[in-house]
Structures are given as C-alpha cells and as structure tokens.
C-alpha cells in the first residue's frame, strides 16, 4: 500500500520540510511513500528537493498551483491565495488518490503514523485533532463564531487526514469563497476557520497528545495527564510533535522544552 503525504511550502520552508519528511520516513513502518508538495511556483531548490526525496527512497510529486483556480477567490493581504491550498487540494491532486495525510512543515514525527493513516473514515471528510478539547467555553465560542454548532470541536488543521473520495463529492470551491466573503470579519485563522466552519461536523476527532501534540502546551499536557505525559511518554507514544505558533525550534532564540530534540533530528536530516 502506498502512503500519500501532502505538504504546502515555498522556498522559505524547504529546510524545515526536509526535517519533517526525514522524521516521517525514519519512523514509518510503510516505506512506499508518495510525497506531494503544493507550491505557489516552482521551488528554487527543486532539484535539491528531488535529490533529497530520492535519497530517502520516497517519490516526489511537485504541484505548482495555478492562479486560475482561484480566479473568483476573495483575497486580501490577510487572505492570500495560499490559504486555499489545503482546502482545495483535492482539485489539484491526481484523481486516483483516495486518501492523503497533510502535514505542516513545523512537525516532528516521533513514532509510526500508520494507525492514523489507516483510520476508517467512512462517511467523513477529514480527521484532525483539537488543541482546546478541555476548554468547553472556548469550544462553544468558536462554534458560534463560525456558525457550526454541530461540529465536534475546533480542529487544528496542521495534521489533516483527507478522505479524498468523499471530499471530491462534497467540497466545492465556490462554497469556500462564499463562506469567506460572508464571515471574513470573524475569521482569525482563515483556512483553519473555514475548515471548521464548513466541515467541522464531518471531521473525526483524533487524540491531540498522540497525533498533534502542541509543543507550546507541554506543561498543560503534563498537568492534564496527572504527570503521565512527560518527556519519556511523548518520545514513546506521540506520533506528531507540532511546533505551533511563532516560536520555532530552528530559531536561535527558541528555548522550548523540545529544542534539543528538534535540533538533533535536524542535524540527522542534514546528513542525508
């Protein structure tokens, strides 16, 4: 079985993409990986990325996004065309793909991801994790703000399993453009908000501590778990460690708990 992974990057995120990809390849039990990368134009480092993927033994499929796809899309400085890439990936990916896992390029894979990739998605469009699962008030506010009270929770879109067969039947570009036009004054994280507002009720909730551990909240996780989810637990159980927010581990001033772990993996990724 081929495993399909989706990324969306520009030239400013090539190095980080390599680190994420390296960590996935080294920890995935399935070695037949197909890597699809959405990009606004051909990457300046396209040859280097191709060579890197070849060295890791995975197939690389660059997809340059056509501006024509977003001819009717509402755009501003705050809502550039790139916000639509994830939401309309099904229109750019090959028709024969039935499933794909999207990953942000600020993620480390620490354990095998196949339990997520093989998740039964019958009747649902997406699978994702919430980062505010225990905050009922914030959850309610987001549901009201985005006009989708039926949604299970407010989902983070940095790890997003896509049921492409179902999405092709249900997700329409014009619906997304209309939603943004109607709700633009209340959208804080545009693409993520749209996903929640339109399709939150068709998204499977997956455990964040396993599949989308937010590195900013390590102390919160520790307290929530009665001190069970410590560093050893994360290394042994968490699949995707996500460095959300502006503070990133490749920056010199980063002092987060997982700084050394990221820098170690980045060094190993650079040796490929």
From TrEMBL:
Asked if the record carries the keyword Zinc-finger, the reply is no
Would the keyword Coiled coil be found if you checked this record's keyword annotation? Answer: no
- Alphabetical keyword list: Glycosyltransferase, Metal-binding, Transferase
UniProt cross-references to InterPro entries, sorted A to Z: Glyco_trans_8 (IPR002495), Glycosyltrans_8_dom-fam (IPR050748), Nucleotide-diphossugar_trans (IPR029044)
Query: In terms of domain of life, where is this protein from?
Result: Bacteria
Q: Which Pfam families match?
A: Glyco_transf_8 (PF01501)
Full protein name: Lipopolysaccharide biosynthesis glycosyltransferase
